[in-house]
Amino acid sequence: MALAAVLASTAATASAFQPTSFVGKSARVGTSLGATVDPDVVTKKEYEDICGVSFDDKLLSQRLERTKYLYPKHVEVIEDIAPIADQMVDDILLETGDKAWQPQDYLPDMSKEECMEEVKELREMAAGLPDDVLVVLIGDMVTEEALPTYQTLLNTFEGCDDPTGTSDTAWARWSRGWTSEENRHGDLLNKYLYLGGRCDMRNIEVTIQHLITSGFNPEAQKDPYRGFLYTSFQERATKISHGNVGKLAREAGDKNLSKICAIIAGDEGRHEKAYQKFVTEILQRDADGIINVFGSMMRGQIVMPAELMTDGHDKDLYNNFSTVAQRLGVYTALDYADIIKHLVKTWDLEHIEGLSSEAEKERDYLCRLPERYRKLAERSMNKAKKAGDEPEPKSFRWIYDRQA
After folding, report:
1. Is 158 annotated as catalytic?
2. What is the pTM of this model?
3. Catalytic residue among 38, 132, 140, 144
């Protein structure tokens, strides 16, 4: 008897969720629920209690659209600034084809009779490059060659993805255009190092494969706000690194490498401006939202894209590479502080009005952060200098176990 009651109750409940074409006429009269439920069995209030959501037929599709995103409000803002992405594609990205620079423009043309003379000249200049500069250059190249990981990351930002691979949305075109330009950087540096003849190219290629296999997680969490804040920071960091390696190459007499680093740094500078422009537009539409996200991110640490770097032997390869870069002044803790300062100034956070009390606290924190970071960095560097803590030279398989 109890089983019969349960079955009857189950059947009645199930029938309440059938389309109106399968239930009695009363289900189609005098209700705003339409085909969603049978109000003779389940009221709208009961339905909301069961499902945990409030909707009728008319609102169902809208709710499904909204709840397919983790950050529906952020996606709404991103969709609103899509025309800006279109503008960035036209104004910031270079045209593809003959009008765009290519790696071959800065390398010996191996189809010409005089190519070996050009290679000889390149090698003579590269021979004067110190091993520590060479190690930083290789690390930068490996980072650039992990581009597939970075495009994958872009496609995780909600509202900015390229679902088909050929989507004609502004954000999809930006993603593919950005990737096509960035692709030149690793190609050019890789070929330069190969022609220079001072590196173990196979070990470098193993490092690249390991890095792409390992992946990279900047804690963007699919959030386009986090994504664009991260890229605003990272593009500037990459520009600084390439620019400083170029200066060291010039000092060492390698004018070819100096030009190569300058053209790559120029690309990074244009991309930096685009991502910072995206954040500027978001601030105009949702200042509270993105400032709270920015504050949250900076309470952690900006993850460097090659932090999982390994050659399969040296588990501390990234730290060793970073130590050399820091000692040479290619990229330091002071640069980290200066980038935060630049972003705070670029977005004029100090003068944004109309913020919530929570966002005001985050804004104040962010405005104080650059000076705080700089003081900590200077204190740490001065302490190490007074103690005579010079980094111990490390062997790098990239350069046949020579030390740097």
Report:
1. no
2. 0.83
3. 144
